[in-house]
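Example record for the data management plan.
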Amino acid sequence: MTYLDDMRQACARQLDWQANQAAYYLSYYDNEPPIIALLETQERQTFRKFLDESQTNWCELIVNSVAERLAVVGFNWAASSDTAWQLWQASELDADSELAQTDGLVTGSGYALVQPDDNNPTGVSITVESPLEATVMYAPGNRRERTAGFKRFTDYDQNVTEVLILPDVIATWQGRSGEPAVENNPAGLVGLVEIRPQPRTVGAPRSEIDPAIPCVDRIHTTTFNRLVASDYGAFRQIWATGVKLARQIITSEDGTETTVSVKPWDIGANRLLVAENPDAHMGAFPGDSLSGYLAAVAEDITHMAAITQTPAHYLVGRMVNLSADAIKAAEAGLVAKVRRRMLHIGEAWEDVMRIALGLIGDAGATDLSGEVIWRDPETRSDAQVVDALTKMATLGVPKEVLWAKWGASPQEIARWRGMADAEAATAAANQAAALGAGDIAALINAGTQPQPTQASANGG
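Corresponding structural encoding:
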C-alpha cells in the first residue's frame, strides 16, 4: 500500500496546484477577477459599486469565439467509424465534448474518463471531468505516457472521495478511510485523458485567455476610473470669493468652544446662488473630460484583438457594409487558430476513442489511422460554397466528397447515399416500365442498348 499512498499524495499535490491555477483563469472567464483600482481602504468600500460595474466579460467572448467553432461531427475510423460514433453519442458527447473543450481553452486542460459501464448500452461510458477535480501524471521525460490518473471530489455531506487510476489497478479512498478499495483495471491503461488545446513541451499547457489578462486588467481599471470621474464631474464644483461666511460656535461636553464656518449655500442643480456683496465673484471648475478614458479602453481592445487573434468586429460589435470577402479576411487569424486547436484536441479525442473501442473488443482500438472529423470552422455564404462545389464537380470530384465539403456529417452522407440509390433505382424501374420489361431483357441478352424509336425521336 505504500506505493499507492505515495502515488495518491503526489497526484493530490499536483491537483492542488492545478486547481489553484484553474480557479484563477475561471475567475476571468466567469467575470469575477479582482480590479486593481484602490488599496484596501475605506475609499475602496465607498466605490464598491463602481468596482462591480467596471467589469466586462471580455474573456468569455475570446474563449467562446474559438469554442463555438470546435464541433466534432464524426470519425474516420475505417470499419469502426459507425461504432466510434455510437460510442460518442451513447455518452452524450455531442454536448459534453464542448464542456471538456471549453475547460481546456479556459484553464489549459480538460479531462475525459473512459471506463466500463454495464448501464450503458455500448458497455462503455465516457464522462467529462473538471480540471478542479481531476489530473493526470506522466512518465518522467515522456509527456504522452500516462502513468496515473487521479480524481478527487466532495459529496453533499462534505465527504471526500479520491480515485487513483493506474494501468493495473484502480484504488478508491472514501471519507476518512485509511485503506483503499483496490480492484483490477480492465482497460490495462490509464483511462483518464487530458485534453490540451495548447500543449507545451515543457511546463503546463497555456490558457486561451493568458495573453488577454493584462489588457482586461487595464480595461477594468480604466473603466473604474472613468466611472469615478463621471460621478464627481457630473455636477461641477462651485467656487466663490468675496463672500462673508457665517460662523457658528460649537460647545463640547467639557465646555470647550470651537468656531466653525457655516456652509453658505445648499448647492443643487435646481437652486439659485445669491450673494449680497456686489464684489462677490462666483465660478465653476471645468468638468472632467472622459475622452481620454474612452480612448484608452479602445486602444486596449485593439491590442487585445491583435494578440488573441479575435476579429475586431467580435469585440466592438460594429459591422458596416462588410462584404463576404472582408469578413473572411477579418476572421482568417481566428480560423487559423481554431485549426491549431483542432489538431491538439483531436489527438486527445482519438486517444479516448481508442480506449473505448478497446474496452468493447473492437479491432479499431489498434487502428492508428483513425481521426476526428470536425465541422468546417470558416464562415462562408451558401453561394460561395455552392459555386466552389460546382466547379469541383466539373473536375470529376466524387459526389460524396462534395457532400463532405459542403459540411455534411458521415451520418448525413450515408443517408444521402441511400436516398440517391433509391432515386436511381426508382428511375431505372420507371424507364423499364416505359420501354417494356421484355424489350429491355431482349436488348440486354443481345448485348445492345435500347435506341429511341422514330416516334420518340420526332416527339411522338
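Summary line stored alongside the record: The chain has 16 helices and 14 strands.
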